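User: Quick sanity check before I run a bigger batch. Here is a single chain. Can you write out its predicted 3D structure?
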Amino acid sequence: MYPILKPALRRGWRDLSTVQFGVAPAHALVLGPVDTATGSFLSLLDGTRGLPLLREEGRRMGLPDGHVDQLVRRLTRAGLLDDSRGGGPDAEALRKRQPVLDRLRPDLASLSVITSEPGDGMRKLAARRAMRVRVQGAGRVGSVVAAVLSGAGVGLVDVMDGGCVEPWDVAPGGLPVESVGERRDTSAQRLVRRCAPGSPPRRPTGDPGEQGLSLVIIAPRDGLDAHAPDPAAAEPLVSSGIPHLYAGVVEATGLVGPLVLPGATACAGCLDRDRVRRDPTWARMSAQWRSGHARHVPACDLALATTVGGLAAAHALAFLDGTAAASAGVRWEASVPGFDWHARPVPTHPECPCGAAEQGKGEHTSGAEEPHDTMVR
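Assistant: Done. Predicted structure follows.
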């Protein structure tokens, strides 16, 4: 281990014997009391020295035997230490691709803040390169989602959509104006390649279909298909056990979620049945909304669509990185002009064949812990 105090957390001395790591309350921690010698020693935790050399440096500074190891253990438990050479073989391979890693350094810094074990941030970042995500939809929302995921280091991002790019599909961070008239899937894949930090891993030969998919993001150009998804369309994903996340804009409302973990959280079938239970006219209204093809350009505020795309990508990355995603079994909604996000739980339904309601019996979700300071003595 080559310990390094996480550079992403800004350091400041609250007084002569107390140091604070981090600015934002969500991740800020306080270390104290710190004597003068220990305070000086902290500057040596810069990732260039292994533990044997750090012990020698500690002895030269007059620190008692065992003090360095005890300090490293406590800093590690507090989540303040990283390992400049940790993360495993994939992380080491990524370090050798300096231009790629330089593109991803802000993402690595963010991961280091939210991970506790030394080297975990680098391990998660390197793991993204082996993941395959499919984005269904290449409009104002879907193209932004695909671009962000590719730029954040997800190795294989496929985009599915039909038809050709229309002028109203163009968006900053998404499809460029030069793509108008091109096939949507072709233009979107070019966008993905352009945003990727380096060449992606080799793709599977032939048509891999759903093989190896880590996640599918359903971001239809017609936001109605995200607001009221067709259970039949999602059935292959549910039966294959493939996690999928809905995102879109319908009229002037943006939505992200639910993230469907087949057999564990509510699916499109659960959502549909719950709506029928709460609104006896739902089936009739839904059928009318879906009948025929809209002849007008749907309302899709550019700022809202970009916000939805970014939030959907963030929830997707949290899931891919192994973090409990806030959209699992939950739909987040915001409307123009307030942009006030609301979390709306999507309950499992006992009559849905997905089986999530049966699986969830007796389970409960605990609330998030309140942020707190950690004292390391």
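The chain is about 35% helix and 15% strand.

User: Great, the batch can go ahead then.
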